[in-house]
Amino acid sequence: MHLQGVIDKAVAEVGRILLGKEGQIRLALCCLFARGHLLIEDLPGMGKTTLSHALADVLGLSWKRVQFTSDLLPADILGVSVYNSKDASFSFHPGPIFTQLLLADEINRTTPRTQSALLEAMAEGQVTVEGETRALPDPFFVIATQNPIHQSGTYPLPESQLDRFLMRLELGYPHASAEREMLLRQHSASNDRVQLTRCIDSEQLDAIRRAVAEVHASENLLDYLQRLVAYTRESAEFAVGLSPRGALALLDCTKTWAVMHNRGHVVPEDLQMVLPAVASHRLLPAGDYAGDGTALVALLQRNVDVIRA
Questions:
Q1: Which of the pair, 247 or 291, is modelled with greater confidence?
Q2: DSSP labels, 13-31
C-alpha cells in the first residue's frame, strides 16, 4: 500500500470515533508528520482528548496525559531525582513527558512557569533536569489543549510559546448527522472504549517523513509563499505578521500536505489548506480585528488570489 493509502486508512480509523471531523484529523496527522506540535483550542467536551488518544492508537505510540492545574509544578511533568538513604545516591524518576505522545490538557490553566517547562522538550526533543540533559523518545509529539481565554482561571500562553506549536486547530460542534450517530451509539453501546487498529508503524512513519523532505517546491510557489508572508507584515490589519519561523512552518506543512495527497511537488492549494492552522496563532491583529486571529486568517485567505497573481 502506497503512503497515501496508509494515511487514508489512518484517517478513516480515527474517524470511527471522532465523527465528522476528517479535515481536522488530516491536519493533526499533517502536524505530526511534519515533526511539529499541535495546539487545540476549543470548549470542553469537543473531543480533544478523544483525538489525541485515537492518534496514539493508529500510530502505535505510547500515550500519557497531564491535566494542567494551577498548582502543577515543572517537576510534575519532567520528573525528579529521589534520594535513596540506603546507598546515599539519587535516582531519577522520569515524569510523564517521557512518552511519544503527550496530551497537555488545558495547558492554559497552569502558571507560566509550568507552561514553560515544555519549551525545551518541544523545541529540541530533550529535557534538562537538575543539570542533566535527557533525550525524549522519537517520535515525540505534544498535543496541548486550551480553553478559550475568556473562560475563568486561564493564563494566556505567551507568543513565544504559541510559536512552538506548528499548528492550531479548533474542532467545533459536530454536524447534526454526526451528532445523531454519536447519540445512537451511546445509547446502544457498552461503556468500553472503542479499540482502534494500528495503521501506521514506525517504518511507515519514517518513510512519510523522508518523503516530505524530498518534496519539490518551485520558485513560483516560493514566490507565492513569500508574498503571503510579506502581506502579513505590511498590511494595516496586522500588528505583527509571520516570522521567519512561521514561514518555514508554512512551507513544511505545505510539503507534508502534498505527500498526504500523493504528490512529489507542492501546488498553491496545498498552502491554502494548511494556512489557517499554521498562521492563526502566530498573527497579532490590529485595529478592529484585535483579539480575533481566526477572522484575520479569513481576511488573509480572501486576499489569496490577489497575492498569488
A1: 247
A2: HHTTTSTT-HHHHHHHHHH
